[in-house]
Automatic annotation (TrEMBL):
Pfam families: cNMP_binding, HTH_Crp_2. GO terms for cellular component: cytosol. This is CRP/FNR family transcriptional regulator. Residues 139-202 form the HTH crp-type domain. One of its GO terms (molecular function) is DNA binding. Signal peptide: none annotated. PANTHER family: CRP FAMILY TRANSCRIPTIONAL REGULATORY PROTEIN, REGULATORY PROTEIN YEIL. Keywords: DNA-binding, Transcription, Transcription regulation.
Length: 202
């Protein structure tokens, strides 16, 4: 199991004894907005996307979780018994270890490597969130869209991805019409090839 690549044997044993290993399908919601965090997800296989949802229904993608990673927002909310400020959705079928929040808090005192794990996640997510802020504030839609497509090809390890224009629009917080218009221009510029619900990065 991937846990053994991250933690030493004592902590791995505690995680396996305290956690609940579950299978989730793409589209399943792992963490909901405004919900109390009772279990912290650690991705064993597959991936999760973490998004922020506004009251008007608009969404923006914050970052992806891949094997060996967890959601720092969920960890902090769970340990402080606060509600979630994000929504976590399974991007591709995933196996996830659900760790009780009280255990995660306890391990901060007992396992320095768990604390290091949290701090490393915090640093990585902070840098990714800075990228999101930078792209929303300073980059044009075409640059943001191309970056998102590249992220997805890396995530799925394939130059061709199955995704709708609406899904890309939702993750960028823009309209489907704008997304389709930019994608068509990107195809004219020989950056991508478009087909029904599929995009190939050239």
């Amino acid at each position: 199991m991937i846990l053994k690549d991250i933690f030493h044997s004592d902590l791995v044993k505690e995680i396996e004894e305290s956690g609940n290993l579950k299978q989730f399908a793409a589209g399943d919601v792992i963490v909901n907005m405004d919900a109390y965090i009772k279990h912290i997800p650690v991705v064993i296989s597959g991936s999760i996307k973490v998004i922020r949802t506004e009251e008007d229904g608009r969404e923006i993608l914050l970052y992806y979780l891949t094997p060996g990673e967890s959601c720092i927002v969920s960890i902090l909310a769970g340990m402080k018994n606060e509600t979630s400020k994000i929504k976590a959705i399974v991007e591709e079928d995933a196996e996830i270890m659900l760790i009780p929040s009280d255990k995660a808090k306890e391990w901060v005192k007992n396992y320095p490597e768990w604390t290091d794990f949290i701090f490393n996640l915090y640093q990585k997510r902070f840098e990714e969130l800075l990228d999101v802020v930078n792209s929303v504030a300073f980059q044009k839609i075409d640059a943001r869209l191309l970056h998102l497509i590249k992220q997805k090809t890396q995530l799925y390890q394939s130059k061709e991805i199955s995704v709708t224009h609406q899904k890309l629009a939702d993750e960028l917080g823009i309209t489907r019409e704008a997304t389709s218009r930019v994608l068509k221009q990107m195809e004219k510029d020989h950056l991508v090839v478009l087909s029904r619900n599929k995009i190939e990065l050239l």
